[in-house]
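for ur thesis appendix - THUMP domain-containing protein. copy paste whatever u need, i formatted it the way the template wanted (i think)
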Amino acid sequence: MGKNNGKRKINYKQVYGGTDPQDIKRCKYSGNSVDPTDKTQGFLMSYRRKCLKQCHREAFSIAKFFSNQVYPDLIDENGDRVVKSAPVVEENVEIDIEKQLLVESEANKEDRNDRVFHIYETGVSQSLFMDLRHEKIKAKEILNYMWGTILANKVADNFRIPSHLERLLPIQKVCVATKEIMIEAIKDVIAKEMPADVKEGLKMLSYYHVMTRARFHSSLDSQEVKTIVIGIVKEVRPEMNLDWKKTDDVIFVEVLKKNCYIGIFKDWLPRQKYNWQEFHKRNTERAEEAAKDTEAKEDCSEIIKDEKSYDNCDEDEEEIVKLKVDLSEEIIKSPEQLESENLS
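the 3d part is after this line
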């Protein structure tokens, strides 16, 4: 067996989507998602049970489409790096071969074959991590733009809303899930993503919300991770206050087996907990309820109109009845009464 086959077996792992033996995808091993140069960022995603393959398609579709929308100069419509075309050389100009080879070799380092998006297993079912390998692209900016477009109802008509991918969260750093390494990583992310709000030389008070989880870790639980995060914020940003009711700024830390995923994002509740599928479902339900209300109001207005027309009909009928009575009275008068009326 060759070296390549051996490496592929080490670097990749079979991920099972459920009881169906055909619902299998080959994902990269979670241990390789931690970049030693400390540049790992991307999206932590959760999906419906038995929907692994569909989740892959929807995750790549969202990441590629909105990355191209935010960074059109860096990412093309297929989600690949934009390759800069080589400069056109005029015919009579002398070519420096060594310089030309150097330019081509540099361009080949970031060609179309160097994929931007890579999916890793996390060791936990219904949860995957998508690594974003581009120094100039930020996962947080992509999701901010995406949700701004969703809330403004400006998503392209030809873009298919996900029905299997449940949640997509921006992750700024991935590290090994040991307490010492996590503390340094969380400090670094808070310092970069939550700078002090300074106005006229004074640090303004701000609020934050903590969201932590720990699954399948031998020594850490969710409460311990939460205590670590709150202690770090008190040390790094003492002017910030913890408020469990406000979710405008959320510090998210999730431990999945051996890895820790750290992210900071905004507007947890307005963005429907970053669940596009649920957001679309509720919007559809609201639209249907609004349509039913308008239909009911139209029905009520028609009933009122009908009642008014019935009332008018009743009045007309009463007048007709009165006329008939008067006529009948005239008819039944005696000859003596008629003679007296004629004489008068």
